[in-house]
């Protein structure tokens, strides 16, 4: 079946939603040619076509909105934007339905009953913001400024970070770090002195061999990478997929390695062993740029393919074959580090192993491996120095978790729960649904009950808003100016988000809310700009462009720097040694393993299946499941069950079952997908369904919530990330 799944079919699946086949085959080329033509680009200056960039996921693709009679009727990709190359995914085109979602938050709300009870009073902005400022001043007076914590996600979070820092609190955390990419970033920082960034510096377009370890390209719609992946497949790139489940990516692979869950590090160590012992690594590259090869060789001496076989379930000769193929294609062998990497508790070390493997293959800074990104030099708006906290952050970063490079969201939750190292009494939650993004929702709710103030800022009535004291309705990305988009990338770029239509209801942009609260707190010096246009123009002029120019074209690109190391180039890495550290003296001095070591995972109780979860190409976590157009494409999730295991349980394909975890937490009914495409000891479901908020009328009660079943987690000792794949479920048939 997999070998017959063509590139055209893959693109059709990846791009589902835009007239069904927007991203498929020759139709895309014709459509792209239309939008690259000068007359179409010129039309962006008219009043009916407005460029902006998308917020339906974190990729932030450039978009062009077509507006007629004050209403948006079409969204397409901006051909000037190298992140999307003129093409949006299904979520991007469905931004219209998020704009016109009838369940949107419409006006500021104050709680009138106990938290958790959906009882509110609609108030004016003056009343809501005065109430917040008064409560924050009270918290600051009694507990100090550090008692305020910010949980944020999205483009507008910088304005809220400015507010919280100016208030005097260092307590800012994004679930995207400790619940997603943090172990990957820290593992690479410990090895190369820097991370892979976002968007990631993966040179998928030029990879001759691509090794995906638990990464579902084509199901997680990272636009640029999915386009490049499809092109790489079409050009005959050698694809290897390591996954307990036969994913879309696995259908494109030369080798699918259905690994036992939790044993990825064992496979990586065996590959490292083979590369070294058979001399398949890039000797010249390692000698020039790396340190610690001798110590690494000693540490991995026992990690043979024969040792790895009973751990992973992968035959020794297959392990050797893949390692030899990696060596054959070096340095254009990209062992893809993925993004969501919080799995089993050894996650930073597993990411270290991927980084070490890449170094042995000579792929860092080389074509087909990891390119060197360039960032457009956008100016900063001047603000005074922030107050310096004498207490330090409460999340454990730098102390309990010594290598955390960003704020730890679960660490802030723990500090709120325990009052240690000091009390956290107020939360501002911007653009993230903590009930579904942090493991063990019960702990999140218990922490909330200890607060004096919880403010949520969102466009939709997600579950977290039901626990808030004040709900502030933000207008959607199509109705507001926002922070500039200037990520490090292959082609440096700056993109503008601007209002496409006027804000609906009584919603406001997040930057306005943050500024208004700041003024009420006496922090005017940190918000000196009178208008958002002034703020943006000051920053853009420092980059050699202007707000007027960006309003017309949406995205401008800058001069590209060198993408790869030059032959014989001397490179100074930002590590302690100044080189790539195969054996980490930094970790050794801190009391951690200088080379990753494998520990077998907990097998779980008899009769239970390990719970795995992932992404859908038509949804962004739980943020889009209430979107009418996307909900029609995928209204609920399914649970993948191995056909033999299902037969033993008497479960049939398409029937509804209930999942019960090891702590007796029960799921909503969820449809069974009975298949041979998954190992028998695990089950799999898409994250983001099973909403309980009654105000999300399109999606409430549909499917099952994997986060509710994740009641246990290990915390990565290096950086504080929560490993969430150590939960197990049994399956009960849903009678009737």
Structure overview:
With 736 residues, the protein is of the alpha/beta class. It folds into four domains: 2-99, N-terminal domain of TfIIb (Single Sheet); 109-178 and 390-557, Rossmann fold (3-Layer(aba) Sandwich), CATH 3.40.50.740; 202-371 and 575-589, Dimethylsulfoxide Reductase, domain 2 (3-Layer(aba) Sandwich); 609-733, Barwin-like endoglucanases, CATH 2.40.40. 31% of the residues lie in helices and 15% in strands. The protein has 25 helices and 26 strands. The strands form seven sheets. It has a seven-stranded mixed β-sheet, with helices on both faces. Helix 10 crosses helix 14 (316-329). The longest helix is centred in the first third of the chain and has 19 residues, at 125-143. The chain is globular, with a radius of gyration of 25 Å. The two termini are 34 Å apart. The model is unreliable at 1-46 (pLDDT under 50).
């Amino acid at each position: 079946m997999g070998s017959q799944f063509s590139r055209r079919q893959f693109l059709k699946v990846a791009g589902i939603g835009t007239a069904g086949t927007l991203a498929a085959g020759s139709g895309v080329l014709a459509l792209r040619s239309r939008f690259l033509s000068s007359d179409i680009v010129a039309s962006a200056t008219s009043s009916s076509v407005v460029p902006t960039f998308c917020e339906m996921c974190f990729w932030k693709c450039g978009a062009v909105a077509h507006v007629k009679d004050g209403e948006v009727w079409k969204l397409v990709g901006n051909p000037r934007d190298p992140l999307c190359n003129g093409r949006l995914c299904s979520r991007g085109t469905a931004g219209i339905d998020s704009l016109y979602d009838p369940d949107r938050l419409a006006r500021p709300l104050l709680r009138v009953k106990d938290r958790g009870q959906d009882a509110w009073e609609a108030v004016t902005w003056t009343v809501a913001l005065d109430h917040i400022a008064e409560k924050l001043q009270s918290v600051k007076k009694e507990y100090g400024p550090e008692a305020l914590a910010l949980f944020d996600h999205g483009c507008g979070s910088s304005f809220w970070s400015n507010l919280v820092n100016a208030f005097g609190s260092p307590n800012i955390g994004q679930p995207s770090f400790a619940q997603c990419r943090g172990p990957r970033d820290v593992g690479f920082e410990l090895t190369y002195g820097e991370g892979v960034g976002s968007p990631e510096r993966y040179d998928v377009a030029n990879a001759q061999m691509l090794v995906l370890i638990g990464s579902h390209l084509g199901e997680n719609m990272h636009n640029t990478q999915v386009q490049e992946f499809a092109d790489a497949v079409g050009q005959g790139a050698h694809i290897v997929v390591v996954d307990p489940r036969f994913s879309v990516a696995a259908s494109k692979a030369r080798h699918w390695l259905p690994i036992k869950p939790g044993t990825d590090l064992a496979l990586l160590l065996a590959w490292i062993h083979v590369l070294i012992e058979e001399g398949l690594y890039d000797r010249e590259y390692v000698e020039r740029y790396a340190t610690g090869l001798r110590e690494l060789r000693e540490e991995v001496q026992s990690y043979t393919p024969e040792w790895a076989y009973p751990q992973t379930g992968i035959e020794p000769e297959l392990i050797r074959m893949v390692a030899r193929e990696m060596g054959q294609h070096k340095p254009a062998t990209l062992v893809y580090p993925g993004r969501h990497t919080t799995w089993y508790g050894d996650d930073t070390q597993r990411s270290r192993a991927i980084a070490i493997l890449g170094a042995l293959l000579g792929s860092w800074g080389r074509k087909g491996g990891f390119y060197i990104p360039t960032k457009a030099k956008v100016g900063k708006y001047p603000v005074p120095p922030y107050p310096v906290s004498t207490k330090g952050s409460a999340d454990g970063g730098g102390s309990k978790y010594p290598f955390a490079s960003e704020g730890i969201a679960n660490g802030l939750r723990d500090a709120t729960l325990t009052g240690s190292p000091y009390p956290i009494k107020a939360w501002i939650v911007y653009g993230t649904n903590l009930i579904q993004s942090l493991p063990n929702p019960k702990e999140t709710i218990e922490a909330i009950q200890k607060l004096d103030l919880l403010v949520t800022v969102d466009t939709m009535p997600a579950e977290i808003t039901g626990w808030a004291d004040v709900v502030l309705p933000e207008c959607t990305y199509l109705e507001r100016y926002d922070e500039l988009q200037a990520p490090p990338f292959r082609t440096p770029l700056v993109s503008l988000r601007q209002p496409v239509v006027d804000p609906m209801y009584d919603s406001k942009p997040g930057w306005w809310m943050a500024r208004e609260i700041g003024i009420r707190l006496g922090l005017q010096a940190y918000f000196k700009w009178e208008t958002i246009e002034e703020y943006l123009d000051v920053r853009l002029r420092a980059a050699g462009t202007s707000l007027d120019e960006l309003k017309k074209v949406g995205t401008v690109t800058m001069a590209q720097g060198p993408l790869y190391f030059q032959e014989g180039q001397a490179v100074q890495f930002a590590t302690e040694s100044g080189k790539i550290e195969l054996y980490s003296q930094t970790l050794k001095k801190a009391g951690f393993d200088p080379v990753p070591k494998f520990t077998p995972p907990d097998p779980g109780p008899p009769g239970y299946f390990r719970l795995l979860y992932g992404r859908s190409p038509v949804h962004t976590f739980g943020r889009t499941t209430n979107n009418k157009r996307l909900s029609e494409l995928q209204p609920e999730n399914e649970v993948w069950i191995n056909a033999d295991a299902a037969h033993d349980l008497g479960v049939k394909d398409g029937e509804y079952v209930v999942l019960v975890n090891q702590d007796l937490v029960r799921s909503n009914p969820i449809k069974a997908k009975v298949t041979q495409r998954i190992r028998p000891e695990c089950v799999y479901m898409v994250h983001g369904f099973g909403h309980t908020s009654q105000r999300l009328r399109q999606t409430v009660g549909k499917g099952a919530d994997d986060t509710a079943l994740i009641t246990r987690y290990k915390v990565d000792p290096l950086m504080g990330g929560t490993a969430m794949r150590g939960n197990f479920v049994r399956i009960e048939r849903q009678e009737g």
